[in-house]
Amino acid sequence: MNEVKGYVSANTITAKDTFEILEARRRYLRWTEGERVLDIGCGPGDVTNDVLLPFLPRDSTLVGCDVSEAMLKNCNRYKINGRLMFKKLDIQQKWLNNGWENEAFNKIFSFYCLHWITDHRQAMRNIYSLLKPGGEILLMFMTPDNAVYIAFETLKQSPKWNRFVKDIRWFFESSDSISFCEDLLESAGFQEVDCYLKTSDHNIASWNTYLELMKSVNPFLRHIPDEMKSEYFGEFEELLKKQRHIRFDGPDGGITVEYNMVVAAAKKFPRKKSIA
Questions:
Q1: N or C: which end of the chain has fewer CB within 10 A?
Q2: Distance of alpha carbon 176 from the chain centroid
């Protein structure tokens, strides 16, 4: 997801859903003085700065992380007053290194990130490792039953395109997203796991705006030869138009996109002291 300009200009979905989920969980979160908070998959930094940071207590500090150098470059504009910083991190790397070995956070959030990765178990182990005992997590990621993923995967099965993208994985494969998430968190060691499905819809001003967003997040497009990109995306657009998850809202050109998300909250309990 390195098409930063297109993503920033077209993406209004992430801020809306992040705000709604934070507000819904506000009364469940418990804060102590001077907490350190991590935002995994901060992207270009706009939601981290504009939505998550104002939600936090004023004495907390926030670290946004992303695997994309291009996204992190855009984040530089948001560094303010020592409360907010950004660092590179691949959350599914096998060993936490490059300055992350000794990091620890009271709260870890992640919105619209974890459906991009392939090694979810390693990612959850890393999140558990980065969380302080007594800490809490709040995660949100999309389920595979969405218009975009269905269209991408349909193209992937075509012999014309499969030779370019057959090894590119995106999303997790599960018919039961809640059980999938619960198993991941519990296997990593989390407790008081609460996973639920949130169904949402979002109004987008125009079909072209939606297509620009889809181009910016398409994990396959960069593997398609330049001379075939237009043809590939044309077929992708036609598949999107047939999806029941997208409604065309009339002559003004706006659309409504429906989708499901997994919301997951959990805690890392302090270790019990052994009795000598």
A1: C
A2: 19
